[in-house]
Amino acid sequence: MELLYLSHCVPNPPDKGEKIRAHFEVNELARRHKVHLACFARSPEEMEEARKLVDRCASVYVAPLFPFALHVARAGLRFAAGACLNTAFYDSAAMRADIAELLRQRQIRAAVSYTAVMAPYVPQGLPFVLDLTDVDSEKWRQYAAERKPGFLYGMEAGRVRRLEKEQSARAHLTLLTTRAEEALFRSITPEARTAALENGVDFAYFDPAGVAEDPGLSGRRYLLFVGSMDYYPNQRAAIEFAERVFPALRAQDAGLEFLVVGRKPSVQVLALAREPGVDVVGTVDDVRPYYRSAQAVVAPLSIARGIQNKVLEALAMDKPVLASEAVCRTFGEKLPAGVKRCASAADYGTLPCAVEIRRSARKRFSWKSNLEVLAEAVERAAGR
Fold it and tell me: What is the distance between the alpha carbons of residues 296 and 139, in angstroms, rounded to a whole number?
């Protein structure tokens, strides 16, 4: 069967939250069907990464989103005129034309839209599965409460919510990353047909037995934060932990360190290096040695939509995780073994008593088993 897979990002390599889920979805669907990929790239390097997917996809179309500032400015103007900022940013006449030509040439039976912004590219009459991943409108609503100018974030929250409702009404099935996220979306759109598809983790790659110890980390006792540091929730989490929580922990243990690992740290994040015991590492070629030598991984986010891949990677590396209430809520009623709920600063001072963290995680966060939800949904959408 021939499928169209639409993604707002290049699903390769799986080195960033939004790319990871798309990467494994494309791989699994390509194993079963002929997948035609259409996606956006934010740099020439990403264009090249997209083209590497021709070895598993029947065809690959990638549209450029650079120079980035130009596309942001264009989307901003359309937002001021009343459009949704997200859909304006990802609007491309060239992509619509390419998809139309593909449908004329090939017998496409169904489509998968990775996030709501790609769903408008699905032609009327073509059945599709919408992988909403998170309730993105809720994230914008939280931004409106915490960031300035709040009224602009609030406007975008409303526009994204309308998009989510409209496209889920068209979709054969709408997928979300957790049951908690699914329940939230159903409370907003009770008529939507939904299912939960939890993320997995690459246990073969994130395997402590296959990772050599980094001499530069040997003997250091540290708590680790991992994430893209140009993303507001990650920035805020790292800054608040370093300034409000870590000093008390270091007062009890003068040798303890806090390491921040992630690409594109902002000026505010880089400034944390002035704090005693804080090391802003920034971009690394391989994050696994940092997981391997850590005392624990911290996930102190106050805004957490969907599953945090940093938590799954830590569990795969057999490391305990000290997580905020917001992060814990994403896992539903049952927390994975090794994850400790931290409702106060003091809670970050002790590690959870957990054994077989990695073994337990393998049972719940397997891409192979979890992606059956998507594979079956695509088959049903196509009427097979």
Answer: 27
